User: Fold this.
Amino acid sequence: MLTLWGNLESGNVYKVRLLWGWLGLPHRRIDVDQTRGEPATPAFRAVNPIGKVPAVRLEDGRVLGESGAILQFFANGTPYWPADPWEQAEVLRWMFFEQYSHEPAIAVNRYLRRFVAERSAFDEERLRHNHPRGERALDVMEARLAGHDWLVGEGPTIADIALYAYTRVADEGGFDLAPRPGIGRWLARMEALPGYFPMRQETAVEVLEFPS
Ligand SMILES: N[C@@H](CCC(=O)N[C@@H](CS)C(=O)NCC(=O)O)C(=O)O
Assistant:
């Protein structure tokens, strides 16, 4: 069976869980929690040297980190990774946008607001710095989704999964989606797909303590 290292509050981990849900792939989960600093420990770096979740272990023992790489690996050969090279490039364009222009602002502000009880002056400065960047990223998405059902092509792809995870909880980072109706309709479309489940819903057949 597939093994996933990660926790239920991580959008990056949720991306992998959601794709596996769509594909009907069962997994066991080893609970690695960033609020307890576990991804940075030597025990976890032995699994994934970058010290971040998610990481997954295939049935043959190979281990892969980075949510985008994991999404691409499992979507290959399915409708969620298009066959057309131009559409593949478009999927990657949105996924790189997510990692450089969206997640570092929206996910980081969510983390600081939701999980850091006593924020330092540096944290407060990061919140201020990130806010307009996150707003711009959401505007870029809205410009596409105001007139299209999906980020690429005519159906859902891993670009939609990659951007859904933290857009869905952007309000927890202080971002208001109400003025962006295209994003609102797209979120509802994602949530109507078979196999959908919300981020904090457990989907593993077994959950193990870390380290295990
Ligand atoms: N680029 C990575 C980012 C992963 C990431 O930032 N994971 C966070 C949890 S959402 C983490 O493990 N943080 C722990 C840390 O930075 O110490 C991916 O997409 O997988």
